[in-house]
Amino acid sequence: MRIPKSLKKGDTIGLIGASSPTPPENLPKAIEAIEKLGFKVVVGETCRERHGYLAGKDDLRAREVNEMFRNPDIDGIFCIRGGYGAAKILPSLDLEMIKSNPKVFAGYSDVTALHIVFNQQCDFVTYHSPMPSTEFIKPGMDEYTWNSFISSVMDTERTDYQLENAEGTEMTTLVAGEATGQLVGGNLTLVTSSLGTPYEIDTKGKILFLEDIDEYERSIDRMLTQLKLAGKLDDAAGILLGAWTNCGPQNPDKPDQSLSLKTIFEEILVPTGKPILMDITCGHVLPTLTLPLGKMVTFNTETKSIKVIG
C-alpha cells in the first residue's frame, strides 16, 4: 500500500463534486476555508453543476476525477461534499492512470465508494475526513477536528501514533480483544452497496470501520445482516464502530416495535467473536477523526486505544 506525498502550504488542491450538488452559497465559503489552510484551489466544474440530485452528469463527474489525478499541477484532491452518486462513476474511472498518480484524496460518506476502489484497486492510502462545503464551514468545526485532518494530510508518512477520541468522549468495548490489520470501510450504506460488484470491499484480515446517518434501526439491521451473510464480518480481524447520527427507530412512539442499535450490534456483531470497539468520534459528527484508510492499525479494547503502526 503506497502512501501519497504529504501536502504542504502553497500546494494546489483540486476541489471536486463526485456525488450530490453543492449549494451555491457554500462554494465560496468552502474555497475560503481551504485557502485559510494555506492551499491554492482549483475548483472543478462539478462544484457548480447540478443534474437533479447529482453534481453534474456521470461522465462529467468521472472525467473530472480522472483529470484531477492526471494533472501534475494538482497536489491533492478534496471532495467538496457527499450525498449520492460516487458509485455511479466507478466504471468510467481510469484506474490504471489513477494508480500511477497517487495523491492525497479526502472525503467521507458517499465518498466511501471511491475510498474502497482507490485502496484496493489503485493501492494507495486515502483519508476519511471532513469536507469543505459541510464540516469546514460549520461554526462547530473545532480544533480537534482541524488538527486531526491537517496532521493526516500534511504528514502522510507518519506512523506510530494514536487515533484518539475527542476529549470528554470515551470509546466502549462491545467484544473484548486485540486486533491488527489494514484499516478499511467507511459509510455502512456504501460498504454494503459494494457487495456483488467489481468494486466489492475486501475485509479479509482487515479492521473494518463503519458509521452511518439518517437510517432507521431496521435498515442498520438489514445492512449488517447482509455483510454478515456475505462473510464480510467473519473475514474481518476486528471492527470499529463510529457515529450513528440520527439512526433511530422508525416509530419512536412505539418502542416495543423497535430494537436499539446496541441490541442490533449485540445480536449481529457480537456472535462473530471479533474484537469490537464502538463510540469512536468519527463519521457524520463533530468533533470527528480523520482516518487513514489503507494504513495498518492495531487496537486494544482493554486500553481502548487505536494505533496507526504502518
In words, what does this structure look like?
The chain is an alpha/beta fold and 310 residues long. The protein has two domains: 142 residues, 3-Layer(aba) Sandwich (Rossmann fold); 148 residues, Glucose Oxidase, domain 1 (3-Layer(bba) Sandwich), CATH 3.50.30.60. It contains nine helices and 14 strands. An eight-stranded mixed sheet has the order 6-14-13-8-9-10-11-7. Strands 2-1-3-4-5-12 form a six-stranded mixed sheet, sandwiched between helices. The protein is globular and about 50 Å long. The protein starts with 11 loop residues before the first strand and ends with a strand. The mean pLDDT is 97.
Topology at a glance:
Layout: E1 12-16, H1 27-36, E2 40-43, H2 58-70, E3 76-79, H3 95-100, E4 104-107, H4 112-120, E5 126-128, H5 143-153, E6 161-162, E7 172-175, E8 178-187, H6 188-193, E9 207-213, H7 217-229, H8 232-235, E10 238-245, H9 261-268, E11 276-278, E12 291-293, E13 296-300, E14 305-308
Parallel strand pairs: 1-2, 1-3, 3-4, 4-5, 8-9, 9-10, 10-11
Antiparallel strand pairs: 5-12, 6-14, 7-11, 8-13, 13-14
Short summary of the structure?
With 310 residues, the chain is of the alpha/beta class.
N-C termini distance = 10 Å
The top-level CATH class of the largest domain is Alpha Beta
Q: What is the count of distinct domains?
A: 2
General form: globular
The proportion of strand residues reads 15-25%
Beta strands, count:
14
